[in-house]
């Protein structure tokens, strides 16, 4: 992991990419957004706003811990909503391996929806699942603007302490004010 590449995503870039994706989604007659929690929550909220405050349901799927891929991607929380005959937009922040999208799509196909679309603003070159809507292929670990403390803790573990973690966080693009707030 020490030779891992990182890409720090800004709030402005995330917003811009979601707005560009919205132009592809807006005429799809979506009835409900399903957020894959935790990563998809922010993106789902953006699309809820853009799609006239469309309701968001949530499914929690776990596949990573401390920036490391777990052996199995599993559902840990299921939504209580009825999905029959509804057009769904399943949203996550990134399709890394594609496992979370696959698990979610298989789960919802059993709920008799009218149509299922998938969306992640970002994909990885090695993903096995390409969402219906995506903006950019990024060959690096993406540091999202809403996971700075999580990233800092992982860096402290990976790089052997706060001093080395701070140095590496600066190298990957975090600002000093961000680092001072989280470490």
Describe the structure.
It contains 6 helices and 10 strands. With 183 residues, the protein is α/β, with parallel strands linked by helices. It folds into 2 domains: 141 residues, Rossmann fold (3-Layer(aba) Sandwich); 37 residues. Strands 4-3-2-5-7 form a 5-stranded mixed β-sheet, with helices on both faces. Strands 6-8-9 form a 3-stranded parallel β-sheet. A two-stranded parallel ribbon has the order 1-10. A hairpin with a 2-residue loop joins strand 3 and strand 4. Helix 1 packs across helix 2 and helix 4 packs across helix 5. The longest helix has 15 residues. The chain is globular, with a radius of gyration of 17 Å. The mean pLDDT is 93.
Overall CATH class of the largest domain = Alpha Beta
* Binned strand content: 25-35%
Question: Roughly how much helix do the residues carry, as a percent range?
Answer: 25-40%
**Distinct helical segment count:** 6
Outline, from the CA principal axes?
globular
- CATH architecture field of the largest domain: 3-Layer(aba) Sandwich
pLDDT < 50 stretches: none
Structural class estimated from helices and strands: alpha/beta
Radius of gyration (CA) equals 17 Å
Can you tell me the CATH topology of the largest domain? Answer: Rossmann fold
What is the fold's blueprint, element by element?
Layout: E1 6-8, H1 11-25, E2 32-37, H2 40-50, E3 56-65, E4 68-77, E5 87-91, E6 94-95, H3 99-109, E7 115-119, E8 122-123, E9 136-137, E10 141-143, H4 148-159, H5 162-171, H6 176-182
Parallel strand pairs: 1-10, 2-3, 2-5, 5-7, 6-8, 8-9
Antiparallel strand pairs: 3-4
Helix pairs in contact: 1-2, 4-5
InterPro entries: PRTase-like, PRTase_dom
Domain Phosphoribosyltransferase: 16-145
GO molecular function, one term: glycosyltransferase activity
